[in-house]
């Protein structure tokens, strides 16, 4: 009988380990800080959506959200129609002028359940900055951060996210 228990124990241990690994993989970790009116939201999905160039300027939209967009969905179009489609979210149109790095010259749009403004929030580029931008091996790297006292109307907004996103 002890031989049988010893044969079963490794299988049980392996099964338990695989279930534990699967459970850990299913829970997404936050990309950084996203807080509105002192209430945190976990941004676990980061997507870049390519846009056609305009006047020689390359464009794409950064979408950070609580829930990942479904496969095949254009998260930018979905969020324009329903700002809360993926839970809390931050979006920014990124532009790349000739000879320059990518930048968010138009600022960021915000969707968060704690926001007093139910029509969405907007922070201009002075309050929501993209820094430390680089693109290497098909990946976009940057730091998206708000000014210490960023506000839109009555809403206080804090963002501090390190980005490492696949280029479109």
Overall description:
It is a single chain. By secondary structure, the chain is α+β, with helices and mostly antiparallel strands. It has one domain (28-166). It is built from 2 helices and 12 strands. The strands form 2 sheets. Strands 1, 2, 9, 10, 11 and 12 form a 6-stranded antiparallel sheet that branches. Strand 9 (128-136) and strand 10 (139-146) form a beta hairpin. The termini are far apart. 27% of the residues are buried.
Order of helices and strands, N to C?
A: HEEEEHEEEEEEEE
Instruction: Name the beta content range.
Output: 35-45%
**Average residue pLDDT:** 80
Main sheet summary: 6 strands, antiparallel
- Give unreliable regions as ranges: 1-28
Helix-strand makeup class: alpha+beta
- Cα radius of gyration in angstroms: 20 Å
Distance between the termini: 58 Å
Our count of domains comes out at 1
Helix content: 10-25%
Shape: globular
* Total number of strands: 12
Number of continuous helical runs = 2
Question: What's the short version?
Answer:
With 168 residues, the chain is an alpha+beta fold.
Which features characterize this protein?
alpha+beta, 6-stranded antiparallel β-sheet, 2 helices, disordered N terminus
């Amino acid at each position: 009988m002890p031989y049988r228990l010893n044969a079963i124990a490794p299988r049980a241990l392996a099964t338990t380990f695989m279930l534990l690994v699967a459970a850990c993989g299913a829970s997404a970790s936050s990309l950084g800080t996203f807080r509105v009116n002192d209430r945190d939201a976990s941004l676990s999905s980061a997507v870049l959506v390519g846009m056609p160039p305009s006047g020689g300027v390359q464009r794409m939209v950064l979408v950070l959200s609580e829930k990942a967009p479904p496969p095949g969905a254009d998260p930018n179009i979905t969020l324009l129609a329903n700002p809360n489609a993926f839970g809390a979210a931050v979006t920014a149109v990124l532009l790349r002028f000739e000879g320059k790095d990518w930048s968010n010259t138009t600022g960021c749009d915000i969707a968060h359940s704690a926001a007093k403004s139910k029509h969405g929030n907007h922070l201009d580029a002075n309050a929501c900055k993209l820094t430390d931008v680089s693109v290497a091996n098909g990946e976009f790297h940057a730091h998206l951060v708000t000014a210490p006292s960023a506000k839109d109307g009555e809403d206080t907004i804090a963002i501090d996210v390190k980005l490492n996103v696949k280029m479109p």
